[in-house]
DNA-(apurinic or apyrimidinic site) lyase
Amino acid sequence: MQILEVAEGVILSRPDSFNMNQIITSGQCFRWDEIKTNVWKGVAFDTLLEIELLDDNSYLFKCTKETFYSLWYDYFDFERDYEQIKRSVSGDSFLEKAVVVGDGIRILRQDPFEMLITFIISQCSNIPKIKTNVNILCQKLGAYVEDKHGKDGYYLFPTPKALAENPELIASCGVGYRDKYIVNAARKVLTGELNLDHLRTVSREEAFDALISLYGVGRKVANCVLLFGLQHLDGFPIDLWIKKVLDKHYQGLFDTSRYNGYRGVIQQYMFYYGRTLGASYFE
DNA sequence: ATACAGGACTAAT
DNA sequence: ATTAGTCCTGTA
């Protein structure tokens, strides 16, 4: 991948395996928006970023090269070779199509606490509603960051402390019955009973067990946290869409051993393609 | 209106 | 091991 430094920021020159639209509609993140055609804005950790798709299909990251390399390079998982992953599905006709349709998907390396709370909120919900809930949560309980011009500020995702200490505010964010799950999880993280940074370093099985021990966290949510927040790339969340795909194309039995080490990436291609096919396709 | 949406819990088999 | 009923709430 060719990376150029220019006055306005950093340019990814006509990148393979990078498509903002695919990435932010693949259900892994909820704080990015296309604010106008081909311009996206999002917050990750404590930083705001704008990305623009230029006429020549290059992407402009509007940040310093220092910030690009210290934060966004890791966040967008640029070190990983997605071309190689896509080639590895050769011979599987469904996945061969999936990696063409979702050729620019990447697994974002997001904040584990944000993933835990966000995917607790996601249960039995839908993307627009999840985004609304998370945005309200950030506005009510997250720190406000002024940008250097005193306008266009933004809210950070709430800290464990903020969530643990304000149960009544959480209940007013429209998260419904999930409010108690959120408060409980935040308290466990705040006290150190659940150490998310530690879970990054242990086996996927051990991290999984620690996550599902939380009240209101089951297999699906735990796998999402593993995959999107803890870099356990073998997390394989099975949700509605994955179920549909597995039932229709794999007789419900999908052998993931072929993709050991990056099964979650395969899941993401599968999920994205399944959604583009639509529910009627699976009837 | 009543069912449903990117689950999980609990209490029953 | 599997299954039904329940949990909030916005949307259609």
Summary: The first strand of chain A starts at residue 2 and ends at 6. Chain A has a mean pLDDT of 94. The beta strands of chain A are 2-6, 9-13, 32-36, 39-44, 47-53, 59-61, 144-145, 154-155.
